[in-house]
Design goal:
Layout lengths: L8 H8 L3 E3 L6 E6 L5 E3 H13 L4 E4 L5 E7 L3 H10 L32 H11 L14 E4 L13 E8 L6 E8 L11 E8 L3 H13 L13 H8 L1 H11 L22 E4 L5 E6 L5 E3 H14 L3 E4 L5 E7 L3 H10 L8 H5 E3 L14 H12 L10 E4 L13 E10 L2 E10 L11 E8 L3 H15 L6 H8 L1 H7 L11
Parallel strand pairs: 6-7, 15-16, 16-17
Antiparallel strand pairs: 1-2, 2-5, 3-13, 4-5, 4-12, 7-8, 8-9, 10-11, 11-14, 13-14, 17-18, 18-19
């Protein structure tokens, strides 16, 4: 069903430029995506967003995997006033969708993380300011996704972006210079690619001109306007090769691209910045609250904003794993923040299962989705929490279609929506993939089971994880276990069981 037959195709195209997508089945209503560079918010902004969410009848918003926020049930007649209200508090939606440079992601604790190479957030902001609303880059072949960070854990997942600036320090001891290792050509969807190193080190003042040149190379390559399916940076880099692309970039720059030398990515780890952590600023802490399935209510937003104002300096950050952080909390105020978050269901001591789940909006709002995701993921979490104890979180990504907006190819367990014919009826189902890994041993996951009825997924995952816990070797992680036993054995653990449901 068309989301809104009253809108022409041209109207819908233009609406995307303002972060607007028509709802799947509700004519006259939109999803509105906010562009929040580096996930940086203040308490006043979050309160204003909570107010807008409350006034749209449903009272909730969704946190995204690009450190943004999506509002739902935005009535067409209210769009101008909402955009004006957001603009008045310093929030834009320009470029949050459409064929442009999307929200730039980075480390949510940039500037306060005691272990970071350096604070990359000022550079990220410079890049955002240059491209935001810039008409020269408002008509790219398709979207361009960028990350800029100097987080040692690489929490921003540089492996999967079109362009990634990965922070490190160059030079000898006592003369270290903040720099970025440049990578290009990452991307997911049905044909995922990891970003490739260009063997190019970029200084802090070179990031914006480098990104500008890359965007122009992409913008001006006519062959990537012939097909929307192949109109992505990942295909350009794959087709051209690293050497040709590097030379094209060098030709557009007025400074030489120097080699960063030998660099090694960290091993894969769970990097969501949740919990209580000491900052580099003496006596201050940041508190990270997992947000189950990324859905946050207006009450939760208001309470988080109040806590940030009362016990911190009002600083709030969003993460690529759909969580929320409060920064700059004095040590003697941490307990009050924890209590306040717990009171609205944002307790920091969420189970490893709850921490690990990331979801897209699914069939509830998205016209591309073919399955429900948010409610289904909540159901899966609640079921597993009662039956399986995990020592560490697993990345469990639930996507409603093959577009993988929720980055399911990098998940330890990826659930992709599909359809199954039962008698004369098509019912929701999920394909299950395992083995996604980031960091130095990065690899995409692969499917081991197809078309599991949606209402059985929670039971089959319980079997899989109970089997993993029972059969794993000492210290063996989930991915290592899957590799060792092989796809056939993993698939067998996902088969329907006539035995009582496994409990681990």
């Amino acid at each position: 069903m068309d989301a809104d037959p009253s809108l022409s195709e041209n109207d819908r195209f233009l609406a995307k430029g303002y972060g607007l997508y028509p709802h799947r089945q509700e004519p006259g209503f939109f999803m509105l995506r906010l562009k929040i560079p580096n996930g940086v918010l203040n308490a006043l902004q979050l309160k204003a967003i909570a107010k807008i969410a409350a006034e749209q009848n449903k009272g909730f918003a969704d946190l995204t995997t690009r450190q943004g926020i999506q509002l739902h049930w935005v009535a067409a007649r209210e769009v101008p006033s909402i955009l004006n209200e957001l603009s008045s508090i310093g929030i834009t939606t320009l470029g949050a969708s459409g064929d442009t440079l999307r929200n730039i992601v980075g480390c949510p604790v940039a500037g306060v993380d005691a272990s970071e190479y350096f604070d990359a957030s000022p550079v990220l902001r410079q890049a955002h300011d240059f491209f935001a609303g810039n008409p020269e880059y408002a008509n790219l072949p398709r979207k361009l996704k960028v990350s800029i960070s100097a987080c040692r854990q690489q929490c921003q997942q540089p492996e999967i972006h079109c362009v990634s600036f990965v922070g490190f320090e160059r030079g000898g001891e006592g003369a270290l210079a903040p720099s970025f290792d440049l990578r290009v050509g990452g991307g997911l969807s049905t044909r995922p690619y990891f970003a490739k190193r260009l063997d190019a080190a970029v200084g802090l003042n070179q990031v914006v001109p480098t990104l500008k040149a890359i965007a122009e190379i992409y913008r001006d390559a006519p062959e990537y306007r012939e097909s929307r399916v192949r109109a992505r940076m990942k295909f350009l880099v794959a087709d051209w090769g690293v050497e040709r692309f590097r030379q094209a970039l060098q030709d557009k720059l007025d400074f030489p691209l120097e080699s960063p030398g030998a660099l090694e990515d960290p091993p894969d780890s769970y990097k969501d910045h949740t919990g209580v952590h000491e900052q580099k600023q003496p006596g201050l802490f940041f508190v990270g609250a997992p947000v189950l399935i990324g859905r946050v209510t207006d009450k939760q937003m208001r309470r988080a904003a109040e806590l940030a104002q009362t016990y911190g300096d009002g600083s709030i950050r969003l993460t690529v794993r759909q969580n929320l952080l409060i920064l700059n909390v004095p040590k003697d105020k941490v307990a009050q923040v924890l209590e306040g978050l717990e009171s609205v269901g944002l307790g920091v001591n969420a189970s490893p299962v709850a921490r690990g789940v990331v979801t897209c909006t699914g069939i509830e709002f998205c016209k591309l989705a073919i399955t429900e995701t948010k409610a289904r993921a909540r159901e899966i979490v609640e079921h597993l929490e009662k039956r399986i104890h995990l020592e560490e979180p697993l990345r469990i990504h639930v996507t409603g279609c093959p577009s993988t907006c929720v980055q399911s190819p990098i998940a330890h367990i990826g659930l992709q929506g599909s359809r199954l014919k039962v008698g004369e009826e098509l019912v929701e189902a999920y394909d299950v993939a395992v083995g996604g890994e980031l960091g130095r041993d990065r690899t995409f996951n692969h499917f081991v089971a197809r078309k599991i009825p949606a209402d059985e997924v929670k039971i089959r995952l319980t079997q899989l994880l109970a089997g993993y816990k029972k059969l794993r070797g000492a210290g063996e992680g989930f991915n290592a276990f899957c590799r060792r036993v092989g796809d056939e054995a993993v698939a067998k653990l996902l088969e329907p069981s006539k035995e009582p449901e496994a409990v681990g």
